[in-house]
Design brief:
- The protein is of the alpha/beta class.
- It has 12 helices and 12 strands.
- The protein has 2 domains: about 5-115 and about 255-290, Rossmann fold, CATH 3.40.50; about 120-255, NAD(P)-binding Rossmann-like Domain (Rossmann fold, 3-Layer(aba) Sandwich).
- It has helices spanning about 5-15, 35-45, 60-70, 85, 95-100, 120-130, 145-155, 170-175, 190-195, 240-245, 255-270, 275-290, and strands at about 20-25, 50-55, 75-80, 90, 105, 115, 135-140, 160-165, 180-185, 200, 225-230, 250-255.
- Strand 11, helix 10 and strand 12 (about 250-255) form a beta-alpha-beta unit.
- 2'-monophosphoadenosine-5'-diphosphate (ATR) binds next to helix 7.
Length: about 290
């Protein structure tokens, strides 16, 4: 056999056994729980893959995505503050375009393909907890990226969505893109609307560390049949969720589920494998109880 043949055989074997690299880009990103969650999933499924965190500034997002493709990185998550900017450097699915943000990039085909799995995650959680979403009154606090992603999915599923946001114009803009939705202010209007709501979702950063004593809704406004879901997971039990407990709310959902389900949806896009949800959730809860954020 010629040396060239050996080289070819070696290269083929090397490429086949090469570790797949995934990661998250954002800034700040050092405390992201995505590496812990995805690496636990790879280990559970016996996959030769690793997930890393890369700090990337908004000016560098295009270079980072192009560079990742050249380096053979298999997939990326995108987090704050790059989700909107990343949209212009990928071929995005329709719903991600509508939301105006991507949180997942897949490099398996020629052009980087962009997805937004934030909304899929929240829809899945609510279906588990509530069952049928069609016809439910859902009150969403916030009109930022997270609120957009969640409201598009719930609206498409037939929920009647109300957006309550501090800045009314942002709420109005979001509502104009939904089929069956309206918006209200955070004050008296919210107090009235919550009585008829089936589901309350906090999609703002209110209550997040270090402002752990903040909440937009207090116990006296809640009724026991309201489902209360907070997308904030740091702290795990936010003030909103403590208030929900005080009000005797039976169904309370913390932010870990949202993180895990959006991650699971990304995992499936990249690997085409069924994500080990329980392993991912345990890894995140473990990391949170040991002080990561
Ligand atoms: P994300 O992409 O995580 O949703 P974002 O786009 O910055 O982040 O949106 C944050 C949301 O939290 C917004 O709806 C914001 O309200 P404004 O549109 O008025 O800015 C809301 N928010 C943040 N801090 C708030 C506070 N102290 N009180 C009320 N709403 C707050």
């Amino acid at each position: 056999m010629l040396l060239g043949d050996w080289e070819r055989i070696f290269k083929t074997a090397y490429n086949r056994s090469m570790k797949k690299i995934y990661g998250i880009i954002g800034d700040p990103v050092a405390h992201s729980l995505s590496p812990v969650m995805h690496n636990a999933a790879f280990k559970k499924l016996g996959m030769d893959a690793i997930y890393l965190a890369f700090r990337v500034s908004p000016e560098e997002v295009g270079d980072a995505i192009r560079g990742a493709k050249s380096l053979g990185i298999a997939g990326l998550n995108v987090t704050i503050p790059l989700k909107e900017k990343a949209l212009s450097f990928v071929d995005a699915e329709e719903v991600a375009k509508k939301i105006g943000a991507v949180n997942t990039i897949d490099f398996s085909s020629g052009t980087p393909a962009g997805y937004n799995t934030d909304g899929i995650g929240s829809l899945r959680i609510l279906k588990e907890v509530v069952g049928e979403i069609n016809g439910k009154n859902v009150l969403i606090l916030g009109a930022g990226g997270a609120a957009k992603a969640i409201s598009f999915y719930l609206d498409a599923e037939g929920a009647r969505v109300t957006i309550a946001n501090r800045t009314r114009e942002k709420a109005a803009q979001l509502v104009s893109k939904l089929r069956n939705a309206d918006f209200i202010s955070l004050g008296v209007e919210l107090e009235k609307r919550i009585e008829d709501s089936n589901i309350l979702i906090n999609a703002t950063s209110v209550g997040m560390h270090p402002n752990e004593d903040a909440t937009l809704v207090n116990a006296y406004l809640m009724h026991p049949d309201l489902v209360v879901f907070d997308i904030v997971y740091n702290p795990l039990e936010t003030k909103l969720l403590r208030e929900a407990k005080r009000a005797g709310v039976k169904k309370i959902v913390d932010g870990v589920k949202m993180l895990v389900y959006q991650g699971a949806a990304s995992f499936k896009i990249w690997t085409k494998k069924e994500p080990p949800i329980e392993t991912m959730e345990n890894a995140v809860r473990d990391a949170l109880s040991h002080g990561s954020s």
